[in-house]
Structures are given as structure tokens and as C-alpha cells.
Amino acid sequence: MQITNKKKNANRMRHGEVVKENVFEDGVVPLRWLAAALAACGAALGVALLVDARLPAPLGRDAPPDRFIAEIAHEHLVNLTSIGPRVAGSYENEVLAVRVLVEAVRRIAAQASPHNVVEFDVFSASGAFSLTFLDGMSNMYRDVQSVVVRARGAGGRASPARSALLLNCHFDTVPDSPGESPHTAAAAHSGALFVIRYRYRIVHAI
Ligand SMILES: *[C@@H]1O[C@H](CO)[C@@H](O)[C@H](O)[C@H]1NC(C)=O
């Protein structure tokens, strides 16, 4: 009994008051940690500003086609975000966003050089997974759509390894978002990357 009390006291000194079994009150964050967090945020901001200042100038459509053309990426982004918030399962996400993506892929495929093949598919998947986030939560989804595009070189020897480089992102957003997310930007960039690739003979499938 005495040992347990000692243990309890030691825990209390380390963690603060017991809220419930094995859960201790967190206490106040010491000022030096707050100062360290502020300094870390300031340093991260400084690095971000430096990197931002060194970014190359965005290119327009008149740039050589083997470069990353920011104007096209921005247009993909505008086309997708002008739909507004796209919650999984909503008309905006399942019908309008899929339509924008499929139309963009069709345009890319139509302009592809004869050396390359651009194929696409829209498929639905259902499943479930659990996360240990917060108190733990289970995620279930049914008939969530994906737009899959594969670009590869036409003809030639078939590659024995059925491998490809996967560029992957989700295009849905949370309900109160402005319709933009880092993943939407990734979708736009993938589209622009595709535009770079399909003009040349693709050696490795994407
Ligand atoms: C954006 O949408 C417009 C209207 O549908 C279309 O003409 C244009 O080609 C699209 N842009 C891209 C990069 O797909």
C-alpha cells in the first residue's frame, strides 16, 4: 500500500493531479517551451520565405513543352476549385469533379503523340479502416470513385515488370472548405506533369 502511494505521489509530481485512472492533468506549459515553439515557428517561416524567393518564375503556354507549365496547372486548379466544396458522396464531387477530371484526361489523350498511349478508367471502391487518431475512429466508405490514368509508350517490347510511377491524390474536400486543398493543387500539378510527359515517348509508365 505504501509503495502504491509512493508511486502515485511520484506520478503526481511528474504529471500533475490524477483526472481518472492513469490519466493525469497536463498542467501549464512552461514558458521556455512556449518560447522554443515560437522560435521554431519563426525559423520555419524564415526558411519558407527563403525557399519562396528562390522558386523559378512560373511558365506560360509559350514555354517549351518539356518544361512544367504553371499556366496549365493553374487552369486545372481553377476548373476543379470553381465547383466549390466537394464532399465525398456529394453531387459536386461524384458528378461535377469527376466530369472535370475525365474531360481533362480526354483532352490530354486526344493530343498525345502517336508514340504514347493514355488510358483512363473511373472505378468505385468500398471498404473500411480504423485510425488511432484522437480516441480512435473507424472510417467506412462505399462506392467512392477514383479516376485512374495510365500513360505509357506505345509498341516496343512489353516491360516484363508491370511497374509504373504512381502520382496519387484525393480530390474531395471538407464541407466548409473554399474548394481548395493541398491535394487539389497536387491533382492540378499531376495534370500538368502529364502534359509534359505525353508529348515525348514514355519509357516508364505513369
Ligand atoms: C478548363 O475548362 C475549360 C472549360 O471546360 C476548358 O476549355 C479548358 O481546356 C480546361 N483547362 C484544362 C487545363 O483542362
Automatic annotation (TrEMBL):
InterPro entries xref list: M28_fam
Membrane-traversing stretches: 31-51
Coiled-coil positions: none
One GO cellular component term noted in the UniProt record for this chain: endoplasmic reticulum
MF GO annotations: metalloexopeptidase activity
Source organism per UniProt: Brenthis ino (lesser marbled fritillary)
Name under which the protein is recorded: Endoplasmic reticulum metallopeptidase 1
Gene3D superfamilies: Zn peptidases (3.40.630.10)
GO BP annotations listed: proteolysis
Alphabetical keyword list: Endoplasmic reticulum, Membrane, Transmembrane, Transmembrane helix
